[in-house]
Amino acid sequence: MTHTPTRTRRALVLAAALAATLSTALPSGPATARPGPPDVRELLRRDAGALVAAGATGVQARLVTAGGTGTTATAGVADRATGRPVPDTGHFRIASVTKTFLATVILQLAAEHRLSLDDTAERWLPGTVSGNGNDGRAITLRQLLTHTAGLHDDYPDYVSAADYREHRLDRYTAEETVARAMRHGPDFAPGTRWAYSNTGYVLLGMVVRRVTGNSWPQEVERRIVRPLGLRHTTGPGPSPALPRPHATTYQRFAPGEPLVDVTEQIGSGTNGEAGMISTTADLARFLRAVLGGRLLPPAHLALMKETVPVGPEFERFMPGARDGLGIFARPLSCGGAYWGHEGGDAGWITATGATEDGRHAVIVSLSGVLAASDDDVLRVEGALNRLVDDALCAARDAGPGSAPRPGR
Fold this sequence. Notes:
The chain is α+β, with helices and mostly antiparallel strands. The protein has a single domain, classed as DD-peptidase/beta-lactamase superfamily (Beta-lactamase, 3-Layer(aba) Sandwich). The protein is 34% helix and 15% strand. Strands 2, 3, 4, 12, 13, 14, 15, 16, 17 and 18 form a ten-stranded antiparallel sheet that branches. It is globular.
C-alpha cells in the first residue's frame, strides 16, 4: 500500500471524496423520515436530499434534542444494485470521530492526576519520537491533542482497486505507524503552527496503554461505552465486516474506472486516530454526554474547549473552525458555536455537531461519496455544514416559548 499526500486531509474532511469521481447519475430513492417536529423533519429531509444531489450514495441523519427526542431522515440508497433504502439505524465506520473518544480518555486521566497535558511524549514513550529532527522531549500531550506538534504523517492508503483488494485486511501496529512518520523530519517546530496529524493520536493511544496498562479501546469501553450504554459502538476488531444493518459504500479510484464496493476492510487507521464503528444514535448520546459534563469534570471540559486556529487548508473547507482537544468549534448561523468532529475513511464520511451545552446534537453519516476535485469536495462539505447548522439552529430556536426556525 502506498502513501498519498491527501490522506491527512481525508482523515477529517471527506476522506473518500478526494479519491473518487463525481457521478451525476446516482440512483436515489425517496428521502424518508421518522416522526418528529414537522419543520425539523422537513429540514432534515431537504438537507439529506441535497447531500445525495451533491454526490453521496446514501445519507442518514439524526437530530437529538434537549429532552432526548430523536428525529431521523435518510436519502439515497444503501445499495446501488438493489436500491435498498438507507437504514436509519445503520452501523458505519466513524474514522476520525474516534479522536474525540480518545481525547476524552486522556482528559479523564489528567483529571485523575495520572498524567499531565504538559507531560512530554518522551516522558511516557521514551525513545519513540526521535530521529530525523523529531524530538519527543519538545512535544507535549496537549500539542498532540491539538495537532500542533509538527509531526509528519506518512499514512498508508489504498491507491487502486487492486491495492484495496490486496491490502484491505492488512493491520498496522501503533509502533509501525509511528515508525513511518519518524522516517521524515517534522513539518514545523512544536507549538508554532497547526497541521492535522493522525500520528499524534496514534501516540496518544500508546500513552493510554503506558499509563493504564490497557489498550485504548479497552479504556474507551470501560470509561465511555459501558457507562453510557452505547450498545452499538465498538473498537477495532479482527473482522472486516460491519454489524448489520449497514449501507454499502463505494469508491472510484481513478476517473473513468468502475465503482468498487469497499465496505469490508480492516482499515489502516485502528490505533486511536480512527478505527471505531458506531451509529447515529450512539454518537449523539456520546457527544451530548461529553458537552453536557457527564464524562469530564468542569475544569477538564473547559480544557477540551481551549482552541487554536486551524491551518488555511482546513479553513477553506471548515470556515471559522477552531481546534480544541479532540473536538472542533464551528460558528452557527443563528449565533454562537457548535462542537464536534468529522471523520472519513474509504467510502465513509461522518459529521457530528452539538450545541455548547450538549442539549442538542446532530449526527450525519454519508456512504459512497463520489467526488473528483476540490470544488466537488467543497460542494459536499457545504451541504454537510448546512444540514448540521440548520438542524442545530432549528432545535435551539424551538426551545420553550419560541417557534421553530423556518427552513432557509
